[in-house]
Design a protein that fits this description.
By secondary structure, the chain is mainly alpha-helical. Helix 10 runs parallel beside helix 13, helix 13 runs antiparallel to helix 14 and helix 20 packs across helix 21. The N and C termini lie far apart (70 Å).
Length: 340
């Protein structure tokens, strides 16, 4: 049985239809809903008449939009994700078109709930236009929105059907177009997907997205190179990722770039990331093997530790600390005289 507070909130909700200036009603409804215990709406739900709130959120001033968001968030959180996508999928899609970032964040947060439910996630795959709008959010100016979109798409890609939808079908064109626009987190989606499993990595290879990442890693744009090495380092944390990088000669290329860094006046942009790559590689693989196979790594770290550049010095100290955190790493440092 619903509590009196819930019934009072639903009565206020029913009054919204037909009101020409709903600001006062929205204020009252927001206060009423926010005063409820989290489980109260869940016990009463899920059939709440929310269409009017979605309509009001699509128009009006900032206060009206803000009130609608706060109210909808409470109601939607009380609903099962499968119910949300089946009954409000169209409204969620429209929310990602909204000019107000907070509406998009509300929408993408609901998408995040939906993709964590296996049955609800399948519904998104049956709604290609919503999926397309989520992809477009990767290029959003608001980084938090872009990150949530990447998180949701990465979750969708954990199923074979999701992988195929994103990296084999028509949506792959949209993924590539969006990644071409988004400099800051350009490859985070593809690396998240590729890191999940060897099969996922193969999909990313076949899509051409990983080869594009490698090309930019060794390209002439120093700032892009610095971003790419972060993505490659993430990929190297998985065994299948390291195997791919080794087979493609990427690790050798990174080593050669470090060798040539002394003659590059712009090496300060990317060298810290390249050194960190080998530091992380040594920990997840074998410190002794990495240091023996790529001697330029330890040579450069020791050079940076003895230099005057504070940024490089800090990276060197951190890297030596990482190496010294394992028994094998300590033995490697002992051989160089850096640990006793």
């Amino acid at each position: 049985m619903a509590t009196p507070g819930v019934e009072a909130a639903l009565e206020l909700l029913s009054r919204l239809s037909g009101v020409r200036d709903p600001i006062e009603e929205l204020r009252d409804l927001r206060v009423a809903v926010e005063a409820l215990q989290p489980g109260a709406l869940r016990e009463r739900g899920p059939q709440f008449p929310l269409d009017g709130l979605f309509v009001l959120m699509a128009q009006g001033d900032s206060e009206q939009i803000s009130s609608c968001i706060a109210i909808l968030e409470r109601f939607l959180q009380a609903m099962d994700p499968l119910y949300v996508i089946r009954n409000f999928g169209e409204q969620l899609q429209k929310g990602l078109f909204h000019h107000h970032d907070s509406v998009k964040i509300l929408t993408i947060s609901q998408v995040g709930r939906i993709v964590e439910d296996s049955d609800a996630c399948k519904e998104i795959l049956n709604t290609p236009e919503l999926l397309r709008q989520i992809i477009f959010c990767i290029a959003a100016e608001k980084i938090s929105l872009a990150k949530e979109a990447i998180k949701s798409l990465s979750r969708i890609a954990q199923s074979p059907e999701g992988l195929e939808a994103l990296l084999e079908g028509n949506l792959l064109v949209d993924v590539k177009n969006v990644m071409a626009k988004s400099d800051i987190i350009r490859y985070r989606l593809v690396v998240n997907i590729a890191s999940a499993s060897a099969d996922s990595l193969n999909y990313c290879v076949n899509s051409g997205l990983l080869s594009q990442l490698i090309e930019e890693l060794t390209g002439n744009d120093m700032l892009v190179r610095a971003t790419c090495i972060e993505m490659v380092t993430t990929l190297a944390h998985t065994l299948h990722g390291r195997q791919y990088l080794a087979q493609q000669g990427v690790i050798d290329k990174i080593s050669n770039i470090i060798i040539g860094a002394d003659s590059d006046p712009f090496s300060g942009f990317y060298l810290p990331g390249f050194v960190k790559f080998f530091g992380n590689l040594a920990i997840v693989d074998s410190p002794e093997q990495v240091c023996e196979q790529y001697p330029i790594f330890m040579k450069k770290v020791l050079s940076m530790a003895e230099g005057q550049d504070q940024t490089m010095y800090g990276v060197a100290v951190d890297t030596l600390g990482i190496l010294g955190s394992t028994v094998e790493g300590k033995l490697v440092l002992q051989k160089t005289g850096e640990y006793s």
